[in-house]
Here is the input.
Amino acid sequence: MKRAGRGQEDARVFHRIRRRTKEPSEAQRRFFELSARLQNQVPPGIGVPPVEPEHTEPTTAVDDFLPPELRVPSHDQLDGKMMPWKQPLVLDGEMVACSECGAYRDWLILSTRDQIWLRCRVGHQQQETRLDTAWFNRNSGPADATHATFEDCLRHLGH
Here is the structure.
């Protein structure tokens, strides 16, 4: 049910609200005044040539780099990386098996020269083109040791 005379009062309220929104608010007026005053001003230091720095005595360099026994070789200093992969390796819905002996678990995954190689427990190696260095980096943990030879690394990983 509608009350008599109530509709005209509501309409006047809405017209007042519309009138108020047509005029800028006090904050908007202050912003427009401030931006008008600052329009032709340039911040200090703009357009001025840079000041030459004073020549000071060179500071002595402190060797605060890690000692050699704590440094980790960078990727360009290594011939490759290896990680053990105990569980079966499934790629594209297919379980990878050794092409020579049929082994499907307990792999060593080698990453060298942007290629990924799989090595089974027996010692057969096959290149895996469905994997790349990015996959290896995502799935390998931090290196726990570096070795001088391939055989030393195999011994370290138990192969």
Observations:
- The mean pLDDT is 83.
- The first strand starts at residue 81 and ends at 85.
- Strands lie at 81-85, 90-91, 94-95, 107-112, 115-119, 125-127.
- The CA atoms of residues 75 and 81 lie 9 Å apart.
